[in-house]
Structure formats: structure tokens, C-alpha cells
Amino acid sequence: MALCLALPAAAEDLPRPLVDADFIQFDPDQAKLGQLLFYDKILSGNRNISCGTCHHHDHGGTDGLSLGIGEGGEGLGPKRVSQSPADRIRKRIPRNAPALWNLGAKEVSVLFHDGRLETSDLYGNGFNSPAEEWLPQGLETILAAQALFPITARFEMAGDPEENEVSGAVNDRIDNAWPIIAKRVRIIPEYGALFVQAFDHIETPEDVTIVDIANALAAFMGTEWQNHDSPFDRYLSGNTSALSPDALEGMTLFYGKAKCAACHSGPLLSDQSFHALALPAFGPGKTRRFDPQPRDVGRMGESDRLEDAYRFRTPMLRNVALTAPYGHNGAYPTLDGIVRHHLDPEGERRMWTKEHARLPSAPWLEHVDFIVQADRREMKRQKRAVDIQPVSLSDPEIAAIVAFLESLTGETALTRPLGRPDSVPSGLSVD
Length: 431
Fold this sequence. Notes:
30% of the residues lie in helices and 3% in strands. The chain is mainly α. It folds into two domains: 11-19 and 228-406, Cytochrome c-like domain (Cytochrome Bc1 Complex, Chain D, domain 2); 24-224, Cytochrome c-like domain (Cytochrome Bc1 Complex, Chain D, domain 2, Orthogonal Bundle). A three-stranded antiparallel beta sheet has the order 3-4-5. It has a two-stranded antiparallel sheet with strand order 1-2. It is globular, with a radius of gyration of 22 Å.
């Protein structure tokens, strides 16, 4: 009876509605150009993978995997496999492919699970990034800066140094690769004409640089994945009947007893900060130079501060029901699972099994996929690093929170403005 009589969260506890004015306004022609680039494998070292391969429309802007296969893979989403024994992958992508929803919001100032890219004047180019002072000038948004890193990452899109000129250049210094990629694009006649049309400062195809490519990609991502027309958004805008009774109860718990909004706060449902959840560990880890084992220390890998160990960025939650699996390594395949982990990290960690992980078949990697769990000292360190206190909820209350999270799915989430193109100017296949 107490559950039936639960009152909605107080108005002062709820965020203000998210509106179009909260987002960067991108040029439509640049967005259409970015759509083609996003799905064009010409940006990858071996011309065999695109941004869209791991952030596909069919999978809500992700790939549906815990840890995916980048370079060296074949196929899409959960069906993606390593190409062949002769060209088999050397390791999995160490982290879950993050969703792209609403990354064009003006409020977004930090990206990647560990926050290794953030707006900053530290290097005089507008960003603190892995490229440091070698990141080029002229990147208009943090989304544009972000676009430059997957294409130069060996296991994501670049490939091995001995395989192609892009990865070979990265092996010398990261900024050596970007002019090579830019030339690949601008010498394609259709791309050259589109850049001249979309950018006022570009008079001939020869003027196109990696900065223009990145700004076009950002224009696409920032507009294509903007979405805030969910039942919850309608509720915030004054339609008090927009939420089902279960979702309304879940909202009350989310902003109250369950304490979810302590981190998932504000209009974007994220504090853009970093928290340790003690998620089950597996995969190759985002190792640092002197890490003796395949572990992932999260934010500490960027900040070098011990207090940041095992902390990861709070994700935004709109359309979260479309972007399973969940966590920085995709440890949980369902919303129910990740909610239960937040409520009882230690208990759920004990019950977690490797069957929860969605990993593409790679038999030669199976002996190391979960090897980190054999390191008792590392497991103790991760177990101690927890920023959330356990909360006891009943199964019906947990189901209500899941119903609320499902109410964050936009009415038009599955009908994007541009979608996936049928073909791209390079003539390469489109995943």
C-alpha cells in the first residue's frame, strides 16, 4: 500500500526541461557532409571500418557489445567477428562504445569514460587532450576534438603501424596522421565539392584540412543524436499525465530514496563528474605504461591522482533503454542489472558471472578475457573504491525505476533526421 501511495518527486527536486536552446546550432550542410564521413571507411587506416561501425543507427548509436571489435573485425553489432585467423584481432576494445545522445549540448565539457578530453586553455588550442599541444587549432566544439581520436587509435580505426601509412604516422606522432587522412578525403571529387559548398572559408578542395573534417563530423553527431521528446521530457514541460504510474513511481524513487539523482542530475541527467561503482572487471583494460596487468584505473589514468582511481564519467540517460549493455565496460546487459548494481555494488559484484558480458567470439583471447579477476590484490583495490552507498529497495521498486528509465526514450529516437546513408563518396561499403 505504501508503494501505491508514493507521491511524485517534489518540483524542486526535478531538473528543468531540456530545450533546443541548450544545444549548439550546427550548419545543416555540414551535418549532411558529416553523415557521409561518419559512415565512410576512408577515415580508417585500412579503409575497413567507419565511425558508424561502432556507433550505428541500428543499435542506438552504439554497437550492442560489452567490448567491441574495431580494426580487424567484420560484421555489425553483436554479429561482428574477427576477420580470420591470419588477421585476427590482438585485443578487444578496452571500453564499451559510449552512446552519442545529446553530446551536442552546450553544457558538455568533458568526454570519454575517463574524461581524457575536456575544454581547457592548457595547451592554447581550447582542449586538454591526449594530443596535448599537437591538437590543431580551429576545432569548434569538443565533439569535433573527440572525432580526431578514434581514427588515430590503433585498435579502433588506425590498424597496426606496419599495415598502412596512417597508423605508421601515428606511431611517430599523432598529428602526423591527420594530414594523410585529410588528403584521402579531399581528393575524392564529390567530397571536395561538398566541402566547398558547406564551409565559407573553403574555396577549393585543396583547402580542406582535418579540422574541417572533424567539424563536419561534429555537426552530424551534434544534430543527429539530439533528442529530448521522451515522456519524462513532456512531464517536465507540464504534461503530468505523460508518465505511466510505474514510471511516475520510479521517478519519485530516482529523485528520492534511491539517490540516483545524486550523480544523474541536471537537465542532461549527468553531473559530468566521475564516480567509482566497482563494476565487475574483465577485458584488456585501459592500461597505462607501467600497469603489470590488464586493469582499468579510470579517471586516474588521465589525472594521475590516486583519489581518482576506478572512477568513470557519469553517462547521460536519455534513450538509455536503447544502448545496452551498461557500464564503462558493458558489464550488465539489462537496465535491471545495472540498477541493482548501483543499489548494492558488493552484492551484485559477487553474483556477477562472465555470461553477463557480451563479447564477440575470439577463442584465442578467452584465456585472458577475465584474467584480471585472478589478481586478488587488484580485486580488493577495486572493491574498496566505491562512491555510492547501498540502498535497499524491493523488486517492485526496482522495476519502477526501470520503468522510469524506459520513459526516457524519445518519441522520435528511432527516426533520426538523416540516418544511415546508402552509399558514400569513397565507394567503400557502408555497414
